[in-house]
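Example with several molecule types.
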Amino acid sequence: MKLFPIRGGIHPEYHKELSGERAIEPLPLPQRLYIPVQQHIGAPAEILVAEGDLLKKGQVIARRQGAVSAHQHAPTSGIVLAVTEIPAPHPSGLPQSTIVIEPDGRDDWTALPDPIPDPFAVAPGTIAERVAESGIVGMGGATFPSAVKLNLGIQHRIETLLINGAECEPYLTCDDRLMREHADAIIDGARIMAHVLGAPRIVVGIEENKPQALAAITVAASAFPNIEIATLPVKYPMGSERHLTLAVTGLETPARKLTADLGVVVHNVATARAVHQAVRFGRPLIARVVTVSGGAIRTPRNIETPIGARVADLIDFCGGFAQRPERLIQGGPMMGTPLPNLDVPVVKGMSGILALTAAEINDRPSDPCIRCGACVNICACGLTPVELAAHIRHDDLDGAAKLGLLDCVSCGSCSWVCPSHIPLVHYFNYAKGALIAQDRQQRKTERTKTLVEAHAARQERIAAARAANRKPKATTDHGVQA
Amino acid sequence: MSQTVATISGPFAHSTNSVQRTMLTVLLALTPATVCNLYLFGWPSIFLFGVTIGACVIAEAVSLLLAGGSLTRTLTDGSAILTGWLLALTLPPWAPWWIGVLGAIFAIPLAKQAFGGLGQNLFNPAMVARVALLVSFPVVMTAWVAPHPLFTANAPSLHDAITITFGGQIPDGVTAATALGYVKTELSRGIPVFQSLAEYGHQSTLPYIPDLMDLATGYKAGSLGETSAVLILAGGLFLIRRRIITWHIPVMVMGTLFVMGTLFNLLDPARFAPGLFHLFSGATFLGAFFIATDYVTSPVSVRGQLIFGFGVGLLTWVIRTFAGYPEGMAFAVLLMNSLTPIIDQYTRPRLFGRTRTGEPLPIKVPS
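Resulting structure tokens for the full complex:
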């Protein structure tokens, strides 16, 4: 199919050969599972269980609250050991409410919702509700609750459902393996989602460095004339939602709008499979495929792991470390974040666990900027990182904002390409955070000002009222005196 | 700011490129032409080349010591060597040693470090030095010689070379005009350009017929960097292939120069030199590929680079054709350097999802 060019982009070393040829393997059931109540964008789920409760596999243990939230389910049967706070898989390592489960080894399923045998005959709302009840979130890493995204069809006319199989991050092969091994489930999930969205057309976008996945998906989709396969050029960040939409449809999403405003909704391949399982079998999202890779891992693997297994369990399953890792990352090396330690659990959005050596990261102290312009040429968002950095260095955050700082998607291409090794993304993240804090402070100040003014006005009114009350009295007094 | 906050942002992968590697690649690209010309102009040129680069490195070290910065890291980035190398390529090959030393002082402490060091200078340091030397010492800076290849009968011996470089005495009868200089002088005497072009070469000590071949191979009078156009061109193409530079600036510089030359030559061949002559003489290739493309002093965006290259080409032609100096590349580059910040400001790429003015794009409703 005809593709549209996207601006910029880079060609990092992909290292996908480390794990790409290894079939998905299930993780042996760990001793403990740790289920954080917030594994998604939105409100944390409300805990429904207490210490000592017996759980069945698939049972809801924390319930979504509010419009944007997601259920958590028990990944296996067992007992609740504790409801406590442990460090979250986040660079801050801050503690988060977590349900600790000791599996009983029986893996007994709870009574699951009935399978929906013909989802295309069922109202879209019913399916979206099933997706919500199954705790499904965007599994590409963004972890936005999928049901909310499926309901975009209510307010928008959706023309195209775009299934994202680009997997443009280096090292990661979990989506590649899923497409090779579960192509039918992905296509079925995609068709169900298109039905919910009311989208007549489905496009599966896959980078051309995954020929087996392309072949498998092409075969699986061949029976359905409304599904097209887009063979994408290998280029980072092709998998970015807006850039993928542009490459496949030629539509450029306006700033601060959604792709849905242009009639396009993007879902990840793993999400499509999760929807298939929820609708066809009533199974909630309690496991995911994680790529464990990097030069410091003895045997890189693609592991189907229950949510809540510790990162250490997965690394042990890969034979541990072959050498001391310089950095432990969750996600890919471009947009992933450092793991605070090995005891944090696998969560729904964790696509990869990477133990990288110093040589792989190739980081070093930064040199002065020589204005080579590489960052300007490769920025897929059309930013001028060299200028942004100069403004931020001089604490001119508003100047940086005027140049489009908040349009930056933090893809990391500029930092990757910089010959001076300037941590540009770090600058931008700092500045974005500072701008948000500044904005919050300003709103607070304005609110205080309004309150003070209201208070002053009230005081004045009271004083005026008092004076008014006193006046007749004073006249009377005067009268008496007179 | 970044000193107090631990770097926890990605990416956790980087390209293998570095400042040092970039500089070394440029030096590598300059090597063939330089070696060829050092051979053609012999020992005096080798002395001057060494003195200029050495003086630049020392000037850089002294500046850094005075500024209290890190010596090793900055000195090893190769930028001072590159500045010295480029400056040496623009000097008359038999110029005395102090020209190289003064040039280094203009280039490094004044044009580079005073602005804040690597990456901060507004003007190309080598060109600042060349222009400062040219206006201060016009006689020395225009004492060009014809090639005297090493190991030939005409070549100055090591002893002669010491007298030339360190004694500042160029023997009589060896100086020669550059092609650009000759044509300009003859024109001022009323000799039409086509005639002087045909005569050029008979004026030199070498019995050769002036044609494009000679201009290209370097067997003519001129600076180290202007005489072997073909090797400089090869080095430039190597830089493009290695993705150190892109084609935009060089093609615009050469294209503009060629088009202007050709156009005006067609109008009046007695007054204006042809486009090919402009292309193959003077510092056209060195300027287009190695000087105008200097990262620090040229625009960062592709559109900016196209405008910049056009400006350099146009100004070079204007200065060569109408001004008092036969060669205008250095002036053209410096003039355009001063415009770089404003070019950068007006040639930023369009932001994704926004119009050129920064407004969000209108929503196109799918048909």
